[in-house]
Every structure is written in C-alpha cells, then in structure tokens.
Specification:
The protein is α/β, with parallel strands linked by helices and about 280 residues long. Helices cover about 45% and strands about 20% of the residues. The protein has an eight-stranded mixed sheet, with helices on both faces. A four-stranded mixed sheet has the order 4-3-10-9. Helix 6 packs antiparallel against helix 7 (about 210-225) and helix 6 (about 175-195) packs across helix 8 (about 235-245). The structure holds pantoate (PAF).
Length: about 280
C-alpha cells in the first residue's frame, strides 16, 4: 500500500518506520526540519522495543501528494492546516491517528475521500532528529468515521497495519467512536497528571497517581454515556490502567510538550470532556 504519514512526531515516526519495514508498503513521511533532513541523510532509526533503520521517502511539503492512505499524526491543533495541504493531493482514504476529539470532522470538511478514525496506545518518543524511541506496544484500532461504505477501506488499512505487525482491530462506526472515547479517557487521565507532576506514565500505577486515574476515567465514561456513546465505567477504568502499564516507560506527549514549553492538546482532551459534561449536566471535578 502507498501510505503518506502526515506528521513525523513520535507516533508518526514510529508508525512510518513500522510500515516502511514492510517491502510491499511505500511510505512517505511529511515532517519538519531538522528531522526530515536527518531521515533523508541517514534513514529513520528506531530504538527500544526493537532496533532498526528504514529509509522512507521524506518531505516537508505535504501538498500535491497522492497515495492509497494518508495517515494523519499531527497535533490536533494542526489538523486544519494538514487537511488543507492534503486537500491539494489525491487519496483513497484518510485516517486520523491523533489524540483528542474533533480531528475527523476537520478532515471530513476538507477532503472528499472516506475518513477513518484510529486510536493507538503505542508509546513512542521522538527526541533527536532522525531517531524515534519505541517505548511500548499498545493497541491499534481503525474504523470508518461515518457509518457508510468505508468499512471495506478500513479493513484494507487494517490489513496494511497487520502486515507491519501492528495487530490492529477494525471496528464499525459505533465501535470506533466508543474507542475514541476510551482513548480520550486514557489521555485525560494520563497526560495532564504526568505533565503536572513531571513523571513517566508508569508513576500513575501507584498512589498518589493511581488515586486520580480511576476517577478521571469514570468521569470521562459518564460523559461519553451522556453524549450517547455506550462506555462502561469499570471497563474504561481497567483500560486506562492497562495503558499506564503498557506505556510505563513513556513520557506522555503532554509532559513532553510542557517540559519543552510547547503548546499542549489540553483543549481537545480535558477541555472537550469539560465542554461535553457541561452540556449534559455531568459533574467532572
Ligand atoms: O499522548 C500520549 O502520550 C499517548 O497517547 C499515551 C497513550 C497516553 C502514551 O503516553
């Protein structure tokens, strides 16, 4: 499959590298300097869970590209700009693999191809140009954003991921929305707490961090149910704890953003929960 990975941050670089390892896939990574120049010169190096170097095509210019799939991995506040660039190219499908809510609506507003939603709890950190640390396996789920005919495309994308040993689950539109809310619960519980306390995800496995994780997960599940998405509170709390364990060695994306003085995704994660909760009269302290 021809795949454009739009956004060469931590998850984009890891998924780009894992997909580029498959001889049948042709991967183009769209990123920023100096990462792009480093990958062009010496390849993309993965360390951690597995160690290898791949040589995907790489560019800073996301316009006029064409591929079977555009995998969008930019920060949520960059989705609009990414969608505008992608709209100048041609794709059979576009799939968001981002944190936070609202990304799929933005992509659907700009692109005519089917939009898929995806979630992952893989742990990765892109620290130095040309290198990404793979800190933990997690799960990968994809599905059509709208209950339309995109299920076939979602299955093809699932097969492309499976060839890269990513063991994806393919859901229908209702299933992927439930997964997005479950991922939102993990991000709402893990990201700001680790960012505020400046700790790795694994620190939330014990008190006092673990005392916060479960109530936050339950608040998000209650908000999801009020928004019409059937999310069980116990299952959500367990799923979030599993993400903490699977990514114990990872610094969350928000911790890294705060530590580097960068903009965070708080508005599309906890901000989104607060907005929805307010709308439905749910208490989310
Ligand atoms: O944003 C993140 O850091 C990741 O989504 C996750 C799964 C919480 C792992 O650190």
């Amino acid at each position: 499959m021809d795949i454009v990975v739009f956004g060469a941050g931590s998850i984009g670089s890891l998924f780009g590298a894992l997909l580029a390892r498959v001889p049948d896939h042709s991967v183009t990574l769209v990123g920023r300097e100096p990462h792009v120049a480093a990958v062009r010169d010496a390849g993309l190096r993965v360390t951690g869970v597995d160690e290898f170097v791949v040589r995907p095509a790489v560019t800073t210019d996301g316009t006029d590209l064409s591929a079977d799939l555009a995998l969008v991995t930019v920060k949520a506040f960059d989705t609009e700009a990414a969608a505008e660039e992608l709209a100048t190219g041609a794709f059979r499908a576009v799939c968001s693999l981002q944190n936070g809510m609202g990304n799929e609506e933005t992509l659907a507003r700009h692109l005519e191809c089917p939009v898929l939603a995806g979630t992952t709890s893989y742990g990765a950190v892109r620290d130095s140009p040309g290198t990404v640390a793979w800190n933990g396996r997690g799960d990968v789920v994809v599905g059509p954003w709208e209950p339309t005919d995109a299920t076939g495309v979602a299955e093809e994308v699932g097969e492309a991921f499976a060839a890269a040993d990513l063991s994806p689950a393919v859901e229908d539109a209702a299933g992927i929305r439930r997964r997005l809310w479950r991922k939102l619960a993990a991000n709402a519980a893990i990201n700001p707490t680790t960012a505020l306390a400046r700790v790795e995800n694994g620190a939330l496995g014990d008190p006092p961090g673990s005392d916060l994780v479960e109530p936050i997960a339950r608040e998000v599940a209650a908000t999801a149910r009020a928004s019409g998405v059937d999310l069980d509170a116990d299952e959500t709390a367990t799923a979030v704890t599993e993400v903490v364990d699977a990514t114990a060695a990872n610094e969350s994306s928000m911790y890294r953003d705060v530590a580097r003085g960068r903009r965070t995704e708080i508005d599309v994660i906890n901000g989104y929960v607060v907005e929805q909760a307010r709308e439905h009269g749910i208490d989310v302290p």
